[in-house]
Amino acid sequence: MSETTSNAPGKAGFKFDLQALGPILALIVLVVVGYLLNPDFLGSKNITNVLSRSSFIGIMAVGMTFVITAGGLDLSVGSMTAFIAGIMIMVMNGLIPSLGTNWGVILVGMGTGLMLGAAAGAVNGLLITRMGIEAFIVTLGMMVIFRSLVTWMADGGTISLNFSLGSIYEPVYYGGLFGIRWPIIVFAIVAILGEIAMRHTAYGRHCAAIGSNEQVARYSAVHVKNVRLMTYIVLGILVGLASVLYVPRLGSASNSTGLLWELETIAAVIIGGTLLSGGYGRVWGTVVGVLILGLIDNILNLTDLVSPYLNGAIQGVIIILAVVLQRARKSSR
Amino acid sequence: MSETTSNAPGKAGFKFDLQALGPILALIVLVVVGYLLNPDFLGSKNITNVLSRSSFIGIMAVGMTFVITAGGLDLSVGSMTAFIAGIMIMVMNGLIPSLGTNWGVILVGMGTGLMLGAAAGAVNGLLITRMGIEAFIVTLGMMVIFRSLVTWMADGGTISLNFSLGSIYEPVYYGGLFGIRWPIIVFAIVAILGEIAMRHTAYGRHCAAIGSNEQVARYSAVHVKNVRLMTYIVLGILVGLASVLYVPRLGSASNSTGLLWELETIAAVIIGGTLLSGGYGRVWGTVVGVLILGLIDNILNLTDLVSPYLNGAIQGVIIILAVVLQRARKSSR
Amino acid sequence: MSLAAANMTGAPRTESAAPILALSNVQRSFGPIQILFDISMELYPGEVHALIGENGAGKSTTMKIMSGYLAASDGEVVLDAAPVTFARSREAEAMGVTLIHQEFNLAQQLSVEENIFLGHELKRGFLLDHAAMRAQTRDLLGRLETPLDPRSKTADISVPEKQMVEIAKALSRKARVLIMDEPTAALTTRETEVLFRQIDRLKAEGTAILYTSHKLDEVARIADRITVMRDGRIVRTAQRGELNEDQMAEAMVGRDLSDMFPPKRPADGAEPVLEVEGFTIGTLVKDVSFALRRGEILGFAGLVGSGRTELMEGLFGVRPSTGSVAINGAPVRIHNAEDAMKAGLVYLPEDRKENGLILTQDMRRNLTLLALKKFSNIVIDRKAEEAALDKAIEEFDIRAPSRDVLVGNMSGGNQQKVLLAKIMLAEPQIVIIDEPTRGIDVGTKQQFYTFIHALADAGHSVVVISSEMTEVIGLCDRVAVMRRGRIAGEVTGDDVNEDTIVRLAMGLDKKGNGHE
Amino acid sequence: SIPAATHGWAGGMNFHAKTTIERLEATYPELDFVLSTASDPAKQVNDIEDMMATRNIDALVVLPFESEPLTAPVKRVKASGAWVTVIDRGLSEDGIEDLYVAGDNPGFGTTSGMFFKEMMPDGGKIVVLRGIPTTIDNERVEGFQAAIEGSGIEILAMEHGNWNRDDAFTVMQDFLSKYPEIDAVWASDDDMAIGVLGAMKEADRTDEMWVLGGAGMKEMIKRVADGDATIKANVTYPPSMSATAIEMTALNFVSNAPVSGKFVIGSVLITQDNAEKFYYPDSPF
Ligand SMILES: Nc1ncnc2c1ncn2[C@@H]1O[C@H](COP(=O)(O)OP(=O)(O)OP(=O)(O)O)[C@@H](O)[C@H]1O
Ligand SMILES: Nc1ncnc2c1ncn2[C@@H]1O[C@H](COP(=O)(O)OP(=O)(O)OP(=O)(O)O)[C@@H](O)[C@H]1O
Ligand SMILES: [Mg+2]
Ligand SMILES: [Mg+2]
After folding, report:
1. Nearest CB partner across the interface for D66, out of B158, B166, B304
2. Which residues surround ligand 2 with Cβ inside 6 Å?
3. Which ligand is nearest to the Cα of residue C101, counting in written order?
4. Which class for C335: exposed (0-12), middle (13-18), buried (19 or more C-beta within 10 A)?
5. B270: chain A residues, CB-CB within 8 Å
6. What proportions of chain C, in percent to the nearest 5, are helix, strand and coil?
7. Which of C106, C141, C310, C482 best tests ligand 2's pocket when mutated (most atoms within 8 Å of CB)?
8. Do chain C and A touch: 3 or more Cβ pairs under 8 angstroms?
9. A222-225 long-range contacts, Cβ below 8 Å, gap at least 24?
10. B43 with D46: Cβ contact below 8 A
């Protein structure tokens, strides 16, 4: 009986395309620009570099997508990375006397990293869900706390991994399968799992529901607190994973490790089309966002367009433009 | 229940007290601790110092309260301060040859600062309201842009105000009325006006309405875009005002000016009890939040409790605790 | 018995059958204010039990307690003869008790299908079974004769469609006890019929149904047993047929309510204040033209989705539109609600939760938001506001536990009254009201109708969109009937009757001076 | 009052300050020290104000975050009659401080430049990583450029590695993919040198070029001492200057030795021959 028009497929389809195209368009433009500025840009070497560098932010951004979709926020990921990396290194160095320098020690280190991540995430999540404190405050506090703990652990300096242990661990960042680096592989896997979790599991839907309307979710038998808590724990674990890949790169951690990574991570998520206000998130978009941010740096280094002082300015402009390209979807807010 | 029950009897009244007490309690605790640690803490000298240096964050935080109440966010205020201060100094230095070193030049400089602030705020606001881009992205982009512009203007170094002009300008920060420094006076005035605007004018009502339900505001003949835009412009002007007071303090600007002030400002607002999600804001709470943050730094300087490396940790803990004290109201989210 | 249940004249169930769900001496207070006073009632399998009462009587609260959304302050909820305490609605649902909320309970950003299965997603192993869920959604909506695309975003569908989605969501839960809080408040006769057919089906399957509505004719039609509440107490329980509509109303309100509608007042001679020519909104409203005269009460009827709401939202400037609009003969361009206000035109939105009221603020702020200019030169005149609130509470008989209660915590009907008061406060020359009496009890309706007439007498012009046929017929001396975004025809005088209007709405004939 | 340990060198400087203070507090119980570290000039001015207001200090040892903003506040400290020792970064007005212990930033650049000239008599292609944009960084780079003037050494590119390993790593990676031929890298700081080495190793072009860091981080000194082919040398910019300054200031109070004046600790070139005596294994830096 009702004369529905809201489901005009044309309209809906078009809308979808537009929002989907947004970030991808920006990405394509960047790639083309990069290539024109410097053909080496598309060299497998450079691509590999960019991808494996981006993997840290990327892995965390996937987790952040869920946190934000569920209406949360986490400002602590950057310094959390530094903290976890620091502890990992200290643990591994500490174990050498007893266990010697071998994979065993490294595996223990990795385990520590992941567990520490889960724990840190749980602390954030519990303070937010059980105590009902604004995520912004909790994670801002944590950010400051982790940062200063690292400085303290490093005595203001740098915590360095035992050299010979470092050289065993190195392949985890520099090595790979079929010429594809481990960080890239891990990032890809995390992204795919994330995409599946977001679109094809009840968990993803529950995150969106909570972010969209917490009470509706509660009334619909969704266990709001647990789902939220879980988003922070998962993010924590992913931060741990990122640290596990980060440590072998330079074998050190200091209080300048992961500086401002939280902003970069969140920016990647939003550029990807996820709503900061929650209720709608897409993992593949986040991946695109991560690549966009990674490429900007890379391109700026590959070309000397301007005074390096102005790199930031260009960066800022591109970030904004990347989102202008998809304002169609934002305006639906 | 909630904020709106201001004139409520019984239970409602009690709740109101509870949320009101939250930050104030934290403030009192801090003051007591400070006094116990070092009696000079309550010395007029120290109080004056703390208040006048908090005034920068304070003045901006009042503006930020409106932005956040209307459901927005501004990450650019910190680097905006640096940028405005930089331009102000360059303008004033540039005018000396023609106008000499006198108040005239300084007044021009002040005017520039305020107008620049308004303009910067307008840019943020227009991108957000007319283009419909997430406030987070716009202001993050602007933050990066302003930062790098300052670095560029200062050629990586510091932009310093002509020395003799500086000594004329100094009283604007160090001078005052009846022994009360100008920054404190200005902060007080801004805060009072803000409180009035928020609770007793249509503008404040409209901000809260937009923040709680944009659609309802629209159907209620509130010009959503203009009100939002205005919050950003006002904030911009206040940032300009803060810069006007900041320049005479250090007589210089560099790319480390106003570092992380955006986070401190937002934190002050949230600690004060304003909802990050928008819909409810209270200016007096923000003022308390500003004082809390100001005191933490001060107290950490009063005593060497621990390794200075751990100051951050303490800071973080206190910030979180300050909000735990009022989780009653947050849980109403 | 299934036979008996299948047709409307099913005999009332004998007390011998055991109740599935029952309340015994339930009390409930919010803060210091007690809302429910020892409520006791039983729900029997295969029986439709109607709960009626004035706005704020405590119907929704009672239902929420039965279905685990609220805890009783005292007393027991008894399921299958055993006392239960539902810690959350989740548990109630698990035990087969489902509630359709009076206020919509859908996440705007999710699709229809996602909302229907929220919390009960169908899975294959770990992953969601999209195909199955989409199919079931189609099937459910099909049964409700609401051909919506399962993927359409909930924010984009109309209010009645949202109501049907709510119903579909409840049906998908396969409940033993189905509690419906004013399901038909936002439905036209068509959808109501569809719903009733479902109710018969469920009765036949032995489901116990608790039902509230302020449309007493419906109650008289489908209820096997009627419980009447007043001020949080049960004042009467009756079997089918014991009460006619007037008696129900009297039992609820405590006074006689014959002649609901004041005598009609044709405004033929009067000059037009609003003239609309070739008004079009995308695909929703096509080339609509009509005129509204001074002091006239013009009705708009039509099926769900006929475009009435869109048309009015377009006139009010909150939807982009094309076409010409003239007020008092002078052409006006209305781009947003502010323009409309300036032009002396206000609109009472259909969806009070999304567009009408700020649920997280108190009555005073909500009341004065639209007309705030009147209360503020530089600062807001708090006293004047309080005075306006007093007046509104008195005029519209708004009942709330305290004047500072959040609007979200008020009863549905009382919320609607606040919304009415808010619009009227703007003292518009032209007032468009969309489903004005949605969820309002008969007593207040009568007051409201007199109010509308007073408004018209004072020279204001009123447009009434209503899905309640009796309302349109009783209130308006001229009715425009919309169909598929066009005005299918216009009826006046004696033609203003159910038959003519429905025929036009469904395109069965072209009676009246239609514009097609 | 010193800048916070936001990068390796500052970390070392903090370390030396802390250890010295602990030692002096032990030896001279009559002395009482307060160490505060600031993350930006404004915070540093706050700290100094607090010291005056609540700690009524007799002496201030300060490493100005930036010269201009700190000049006026330090001047006020001086005016209050306290002893003022300035480390490293001079104030923009002369004659405020009683004691000035400084590293030599232009000198740091020049020494490095000289070494490049010496190693590449007939020129070559190099890339440069700069620090956090600051006056120091500018002075160093200008010194460097002046030194290699006309030596035929071509600077292919300069980018900011912000005295940070990760940033340096990223920048160097991109340099490597951008320039097929690089003869040497001036990392200008040992933290950045580590990042650079990481990038080179990954691209495995380690043998193709050599790297000059700076500031004498212990790992680096070690490699110089061991005659590493990539790390041929290092240039000192001793973070221990904080220790020197604090110690001398303390002396002024416990003895009547005349300690006021200006001490510039020059930047020395460390090569395999003299590496040993610059090696502090237990410093965090
Ligand atoms: N959370 C709450 N806090 C305070 N008062 C409440 C709350 N919920 C309901 N009330 C009050 O309880 C009373 C009964 O509300 P209820 O919704 O049950 O009325 P109702 O019978 O459903 O009326 P309507 O016909 O308008 O829906 C109302 O006065 C309402 O204001
Ligand atoms: N925001 C929207 N976006 C897209 N389509 C919409 C929107 N709102 C309503 N529609 C569609 O427009 C059609 C008309 O809806 P509308 O609400 O106007 O019906 P109506 O004539 O007002 O009847 P009722 O008021 O009973 O819903 C509906 O089919 C609905 O699906
Ligand atoms: Mg109700
Ligand atoms: Mg409608």
Report:
1. B158
2. A 3-6; C 156-161, 188, 284, 302, 304-310, 350, 467
3. 3
4. exposed
5. 134, 136-137
6. 35, 25, 40
7. C310
8. yes
9. A222/C118, A222/C119, A223/C90, A225/A129, A225/A130
10. no
Question: Residues 6 or more apart from B130 whose CB is under 8 A from it?
Answer: B225
d(CA D7, CA A158) in angstroms, rounded, equals: 8
The predicted structure's pLDDT at residue B19? 58
Interface of A with D (CB under 8 A): 38, 40, 43, 45-46, 49, 53, 151, 154-158, 160, 174, 249-250, 252, 254-257, 259, 297-298, 301-302, 304, 308-309
Contact C89 A221 (CB under 8 A): yes
pLDDT of residue C190: 83
| CA-based R_g, chain B, Å | 20
- The whole-chain average pLDDT of chain B stands at 87
Q: How far apart are alpha carbons C282 and C297 in whole angstroms?
A: 27
Q: How far off is chain A from C100, nearest CA to CA, in Å? A: 11
pLDDT category at B2 given cuts 50, 70, 90 is very low
DSSP-derived letter for residue B53 is H
Beta carbons of B144 and A312 less than 8 Å apart:
yes
Within 6 Å (CB) of ligand 1, which residues are found? C 30, 35, 53, 55-61, 102, 399-401, 405, 409-414, 439, 441
Q: pLDDT of A70-98, one tens digit each?
A: 999 999 999 999 999 999 999 999 999 99
Q: Does A219 touch chain C (CB under 8 A)?
A: yes
Helix, strand, coil in percent for chain A, rounding step 5:
75, 5, 20
Q: State CA C479 to chain mean position distance.
A: 21
CB B244 within 8 A of CB B172: yes
pTM for this predicted structure: 0.87
Q: Which helix (H) or strand (E) holds A192?
A: helix A182-200
Least confident residue range of A123-127, A137-141, C118-122:
C118-122
Q: Please tell me the predicted confidence (pLDDT) of residue A13.
A: 38
Residue C392: CB partners within 8 Å, gap ≥ 6?
Answer: C363, C367, C398, C417, C418, C421, C425
User: Closest ligand 2 atom to the C-alpha of C467?
Assistant: 26
Between B312-321, C252-261, C346-355, C381-390, the lowest mean confidence (pLDDT) is in C252-261
**Which pair of tokens denotes residue C47?**
């029986």
The H-assigned helical ranges of D28-66 are: 41-55
Q: DSSP 3-state assignment of A284?
A: helix
The C-alpha atoms of residue C475 and residue C479 are separated, in whole angstroms, by: 10
Provide the phi-psi class of D188: left if phi over 0, else alpha when psi is between -120 and 50, else beta.
left
What the block records as the tokens of B280 is: 């409810």
> Neighbours of C (≥3 Cβ pairs closer than 8 A)?
A, B
SS3 (DSSP) at C396: coil
Q: Which residues of chain D are under the pLDDT cut of 50?
A: none
Dihedral class, residue D215 (left if φ above 0, else alpha if ψ from -120 to 50, else beta): left
Q: Which segments of C110-159 are extended strands (E)?
A: 123-124, 127-128
User: What radius of gyration, in Å, describes the C-alpha atoms of chain A?
Assistant: 21
Residues of chain C positioned with their CB less than 8 A from the CB of B213: 354, 358-360
Please choose, from the candidates B26, D200, C494, the residue with its C-alpha nearest in 3D space to the C-alpha of residue A49: D200
Q: How many CB atoms lie within 10 A of CB C140?
A: 23
Q: Please provide the DSSP assignment of A28-76 as one string.
A: HHHHHHHHHH-GGGGSHHHHHHHHHHHHHHHHHHHHHHHHHHTT---S-
The Cα–Cα gap between C483 and C19 comes to 45
Phi, psi of A181 (to 5 degrees): -65, 150
Residue B294 to residue B187: CA distance in whole angstroms:
14
